[in-house]
Amino acid sequence: MFDIDIAYLVCSILCFIPAMVFHEVAHGFAAYKLGDPTAKNMGRLTANPLKHIDPFGTVIMPLMLMAVGLPVFGYAKPVPYNPFFFKDKRKGDLIVGLAGPAANLVMALLGALVYHLVVIVMRSIPQTTAAVILNSTIGYNFIFLLIPLFVYINLIFMFFNLIPIPPLDGSSVLAVLLPPKYMPQYYKVQQWALPIFMIVVIMLPQIISINPISWYLDITAGTLFALLL
Predict the structure, then answer these.
(1) Buried/exposed code over 92-105 (b: 16+ C-beta within 10 A; e: otherwise)
(2) What share of the chain has pLDDT > 70, as a percent?
(3) Is pTM, for the whole model, over 0.70?
(4) Contact at 8 Å (CB) between 70 and 91?
């Protein structure tokens, strides 16, 4: 059982890192294409995970939550961007905001494609060879653990970030709907939205014994995962 747990932990980390990194890079790249060089100038348009790790949100907080038995949650260092570089600030906010979830969707689809290609190959090779691969720890974990986890974690990233509440990416939809005169207040709220949101997401479900976020993710990410795989 211990070996299975270690394999699950290793595969989870291997899936979480690219999901996190390319989500953030997509934000910065979208902003760069819209005329904002902030992320590029700060070296955030890179696949190097060290550039995106937030010491508290990526490492300390997930370990603390795991230690006390609460739902594990984490976040990367947000990629900075300056909406004043955009010709249309509200449209730019929307594009940059949705770029991250879009990157996760692309990775989930690629992961599903790899899974089905592997299944096709496994069915086409001799049964004895397939049996050797499936009976090996690496082969089994790659097919039945790593690839499905990669798809699922990217779907979780996508749908979680599409929740239209600051500081999540879905809140960029609000920026399009808000009248221009309220935009300065909107940007101020975003600065304090993360700690408030963390309290609501982590602590509130423990108090009221209802987890609407988990229910939402089961309906969205869970359903799409089942369709893909």
Answers:
(1) bbbbbbbbbbbbbb
(2) 88
(3) yes
(4) no
